[in-house]
């Protein structure tokens, strides 16, 4: 008898917890409270300003941010989805869009966009496409980032080299890297970290290769390998620290402490570069140098609505507002990230006048969308373990890239099965 | 599994008197069951039921957001065919061997701390025990600083002796041992406490008799302490082996995603985590977990079989 009641109690406990979790986000005094899932703590103050503006326009709705750190964001979200406690509106990235959309857990937005004339066309096309799946739009971008070449003016002056600009090619970078490297002071010309978004993908496309096309991997492609070799060469020649060293102090940390003269970096980190006094004083940024082709990778976050949300109308109002000019301007002036709404970037440029941030927007012309498929994480997780040795100065990038291509193709085949 | 040796060890340690044997009276039996019930229920709900579920899930494929389909033995085929699984298994066995080094270390220190007339034993005991109760996250972060190739303390020390700087945890040839060292460092204190209690349980008469016969400290250690401590060692070695086979947190904290040594340090459980929570392959992950359970069970069985050869119950 006693045992049974105990058991029932044990079973009821999580149920109760789940209920209270749900009702928490529901209505309080006639107002609808939306939950908004985000992962970047640096954006919270800026977003709060956007939310304040939205609440002013929509007195019946309030928005509560739910911050989950990046390291656990996706695991938490997936669990919350299963349990029915996911936020009403939340951040989505390219890696996960197709996985979520194909499983039907995202609200299709195409109908809403049409009826409310949401200005989706004012956002970069390459970016908007990332958030469509099988012809239906599931998310609207809020910001975007591209990759630029950062350089340390003081180190360039010392070596007597002209600063990088839009005319630079890979050869110029190589020459400069060789000149700037000073083993005695442990300064490297370049920090060629093994990072897919900031280094691997831009170089692969810059060499005329590709990462993913028509459901096939491009890592085995000759030109892609040439792009990867651009990095491993610099490591082999000692112009960049090997990956094993950069695990312990990241490329950007090396640049900040003036131990690396150049680095490729995502625009979203500009604010953090600005916060380092030395870099604010004599750091510079320009477009990526030209390889065989001009290329950079564009990615950005989008707002999506959970298909299980019970407040879809209010949720749509919020997403619609976030897609507009007003929200974009508030966001840009907070200086955290580039708003994706066309022509609202001025405020972001002005927030860090020391840097020529315009280059990040100039690159939109030839920006390649961040590659993704239905289960992107599976093949992306193959990259670092397989390329690690070659990026640590052990050589063999050709065979490593080919093996990666084969394994990635197998993973992609698994997605379709 | 560990219930039997732990009571044996506790008996040796003199911590508990052997309980009155279960009387056939049903009243006593009822009371006994009632006392065991909380543990039993906890075990059933949190261990046995998940175990059954894991076994079931290992034959299915998960949808990313719930719902699963039966796939038969596909997951087991995948596990057995995957090179990374075998690599992880190899690494895990290395961790297990390194982890067991904590035992002789703990026995040695315990014997030293049990010398008569030693002052400040409580302080030493606490110092050794602190690493064990420190959160693995904190331990991992601190050791990452120590190991750091650019400004780590360990490299500084090595440089005094003229050795080269190394990237300890991102060089595949040293990473697994670097992590193993931290493992030993953080668990030695735990076994130290167990062994100190075990040594305390050995009657002083034996030592006095041996001393009269002219046995030196080393002789006394090897002929009295070690044999009479063997049940405790047996218990500790089983616990230690199971713990090292389940190594996860240190690897998770210390090995960054981009670490080129990741394949050489990944344990079975960290591979399980990657499959289940990053790659959405819960079914295959369940199969992997089940395989690990079988391995642990087999190795524990072997240890139980071998105990007759070296464990003395006085």
Automatic annotation (TrEMBL), chain A:
Taxonomy, superkingdom: Bacteria
Protein name: Sugar ABC transporter substrate-binding protein
Organism: Streptomyces durmitorensis
TrEMBL record, chain B:
Keywords, sorted A to Z: Cell membrane, Membrane, Transmembrane, Transmembrane helix, Transport
UniProt keyword Amino-acid biosynthesis present: no
Xref: CDD domains: TM_PBP2
Compartments where found: Cell membrane
Membrane topology annotation: Multi-pass membrane protein
The keyword Nucleotide-binding appears for this protein: no
Transmembrane segments: 31-49, 92-114, 126-146, 175-199, 220-245, 281-302
Domain ABC transmembrane type-1 per the UniProt entry, residue ranges: 88-303
Primary localization: membrane
Family according to the record: Belongs to the binding-protein-dependent transport system permease family.
Protein name (Swiss-Prot/TrEMBL): Sugar ABC transporter permease
């Amino acid at each position: 008898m006693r045992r049974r009641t105990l058991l029932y109690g044990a079973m009821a406990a999580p149920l109760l917890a789940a209920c209270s979790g749900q009702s928490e986000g529901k209505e309080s005094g006639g107002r609808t409270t939306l939950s908004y899932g985000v992962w970047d703590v640096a954006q919270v103050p800026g977003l709060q300003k956007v939310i304040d503006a939205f609440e002013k326009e929509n007195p019946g709705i309030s928005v509560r941010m739910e911050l989950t750190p990046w390291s656990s964001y996706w695991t938490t979200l997936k669990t919350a989805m299963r349990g029915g406690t996911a936020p009403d509106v939340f951040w989505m990235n390219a890696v996960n869009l197709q996985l979520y959309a194909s499983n039907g857990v995202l609200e299709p937005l195409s109908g809403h966009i049409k009826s409310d004339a949401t200005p989706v066309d004012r956002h970069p096309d390459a970016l908007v496409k990332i958030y469509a799946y099988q012809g239906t739009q599931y998310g609207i971008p809020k910001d975007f980032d591209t990759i630029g070449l950062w350089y340390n003016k003081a180190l360039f002056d010392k070596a007597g080299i002209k600063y990088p600009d839009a005319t630079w090619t890979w050869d110029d970078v190589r020459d400069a890297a060789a000149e700037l490297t000073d083993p005695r002071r442990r300064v490297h010309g370049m920090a060629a970290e093994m990072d897919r978004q900031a280094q691997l993908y831009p170089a692969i496309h810059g060499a005329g290769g590709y990462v993913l096309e028509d459901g096939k991997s491009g890592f085995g492609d000759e030109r892609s390998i040439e792009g990867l070799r651009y990095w491993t060469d610099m490591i082999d020649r000692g112009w960049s620290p090997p990956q094993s060293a950069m695990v312990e102090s990241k490329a950007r940390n090396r640049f900040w402490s003036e131990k690396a003269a150049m680095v490729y970096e995502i625009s979203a980190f500009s604010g953090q570069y600005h916060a380092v006094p030395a870099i604010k004083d004599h750091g510079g940024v320009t477009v990526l140098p030209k390889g065989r082709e001009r290329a950079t990778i564009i990615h950005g976050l989008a707002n999506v609505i959970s298909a299980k949300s019970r407040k879809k109308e209010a949720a749509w109002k919020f997403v619609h507002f976030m897609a507009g000019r007003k929200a974009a301007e508030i966001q840009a002036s907070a200086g955290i990230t580039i708003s994706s709404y066309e022509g609202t970037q001025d405020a972001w440029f002005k927030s860090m006048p020391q840097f020529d941030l315009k280059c990040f927007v100039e690159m939109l012309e030839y920006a390649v969308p961040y590659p993704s498929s239905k289960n992107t994480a599976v093949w992306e997780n193959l990259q670092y373990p397989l390329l690690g040795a070659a990026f640590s100065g052990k050589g063999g990038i050709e065979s490593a890239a080919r093996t990666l291509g084969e394994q990635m193709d197998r993973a992609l085949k698994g997605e379709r099965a | 599994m560990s219930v039997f040796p732990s009571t044996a060890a506790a008996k040796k340690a003199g911590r508990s008197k052997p309980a009155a044997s279960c009387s056939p009276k049903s009243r006593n039996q009822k009371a006994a069951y009632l006392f065991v019930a909380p543990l039993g229920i906890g075990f059933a709900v949190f261990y046995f039921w998940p175990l059954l579920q894991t076994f079931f899930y290992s034959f299915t494929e998960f949808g990313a957001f719930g719902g699963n389909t039966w796939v038969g033995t596909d997951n087991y085929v995948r596990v057995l065919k995957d090179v990374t699984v075998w690599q992880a298994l190899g690494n895990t066995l290395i961790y297990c061997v390194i982890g067991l080094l904590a035992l002789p270390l703990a026995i040695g220190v315990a014997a030293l701390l049990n010398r008569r007339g030693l002052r400040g034993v409580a302080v030493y005991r606490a110092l050794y025990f602190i690493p064990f109760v420190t959160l693995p996250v904190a331990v991992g972060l601190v050791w990452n600083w120590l190991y750091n190739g650019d400004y780590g303390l360990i490299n500084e020390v090595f440089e005094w002796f003229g050795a080269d700087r190394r990237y300890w945890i991102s060089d595949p040839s040293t990473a697994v041992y670097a992590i193993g060292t931290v493992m030993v460092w953080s668990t030695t204190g735990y076994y130290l406490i167990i062994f100190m209690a075990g040594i305390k349980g050995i009657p002083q008469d034996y030592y006095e008799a041996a001393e009269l016969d002219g046995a030196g400290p080393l002789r006394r250690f090897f002929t009295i302490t070690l044999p009479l401590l063997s049940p405790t060692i047996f218990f500790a070695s089983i616990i230690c082996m199971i713990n090292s086979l389940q190594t996860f947190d240190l690897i998770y904290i210390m090995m960054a995603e981009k670490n080129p040594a990741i394949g050489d340090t990944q344990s079975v459980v960290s591979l399980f985590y990657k499959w289940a929570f990053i790659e959405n392959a819960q079914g295959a992950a369940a199969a992997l977990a089940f395989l690990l359970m079988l391995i642990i069970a087999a190795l524990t069985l072997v240890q139980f079989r071998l105990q007759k050869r070296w464990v003395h119950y006085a």
